[in-house]
Amino acid sequence: MSDSLPLPQNTWPELHPGWVWLCGAGPGDPGLLTLHGLNALRQADVVVYDALVGEDILSWAGDAELIYAGKRGGKPSAKQRDISLHLVELARAGKRVLRLKGGDPFVFGRGGEEAQTLVQHGVPIRIIPGISAGIGGLAYAGIPVTHRDVNQSVTFVTGHDQTGDAPGSLDWSAIAQGSQVIVIYMGMKHIAQIVQRLIAAGRSPSEPLAFVTSATLEHQNVVESTLGTAVDDAKAAGVEPPAIICIGRSVLMRQVLDWRSLEAGAAPRNLDPLDRGRPAESA
Fold first, then answer.
1. One of 29, 45, 101, 186 is an active-site residue; which one?
2. Please, are residues 119 and 125 in contact by the beta-carbon 8 Å criterion?
3. pLDDT tens-digit map of 216-242
4. Is residue 165 annotated as part of the catalytic site, yes or no?
5. 244 contacts: CB under 8 Å, gap ≥ 6
6. 50 is catalytic
7. Are strands 125-128 and 20-24 parallel, antiparallel or unpaired?
8. Catalytic site residue from 29, 45, 50, 258
């Protein structure tokens, strides 16, 4: 895409010097970037981007300076304090700053921390939401996070806390008993511990589970499993982080909604994976 292709007619906001816009780039597929995000990329002097922002999206930034600020578990990464204060410095230098994050900046993206730092230092901000991997990534896998025959609740949790350990503040018993579908971000490192806690709290070992890696990209991979076999299946399939993990009967819907396989000519594996015994359009 180039500047020769205009944005649709609209009163698009202007990114002024000294401002920072915190923007979600979506889960990976460049087409899932919002128009507000594209508008921001075309105006920014500096783009401070995370590890999961693809080169295709960055190529739309024109002549903007690109500054990598990715944080990956277990790998050398910039400290969060340094990233936040660097945004302040860039804004005070009169730059038009775009802070570009994978997914949505306010969904396990530390966007709230960075935005608060900016406001505390008197830097004006704008928040541009993005499609979170826990929704968009699962949709690309053919897994709806909500379905009337499955769940009236969904819980999004992170698989590690600020120390990198499994979150000690989470009440896994309450989550296991109270949420019909659980979506876990950044959970691969502690998957064995998480599975053990959920089963101990009463979740069935036979409950469907899916791992989604490289969500929404061409090389996306989905491994269907169960809570009881998840650790072994992930190891056998070579599942590596980052991955989205979905636990619940909605995973079964992939048998009929794996639209990428359907697009490639495959037949649905099961037209009624929830065993409703009636057409989907019936109440």
1. 186
2. yes
3. 999 999 999 999 999 999 999 999 999
4. no
5. 133, 134, 137, 138, 183, 184, 185, 211, 212, 213, 215
6. yes
7. parallel
8. 50
Buried b (16+ CB within 10 A) or exposed e, 238-263: ebeebbbbbbbbbbbbbbbbbeeeee
Distance CA 235, CA 154 (A): 26
Residue 169 CB-density burial (10 A; 0-12 exposed, 13-18 middle, 19+ buried): exposed
pLDDT tens, position by position, 28-86: 999 999 999 999 999 999 999 999 999 999 999 989 999 999 876 555 678 899 999 99
- Indicate if 235 belongs to the active site: no
> Catalytic one among 71, 189, 233, 272?
71
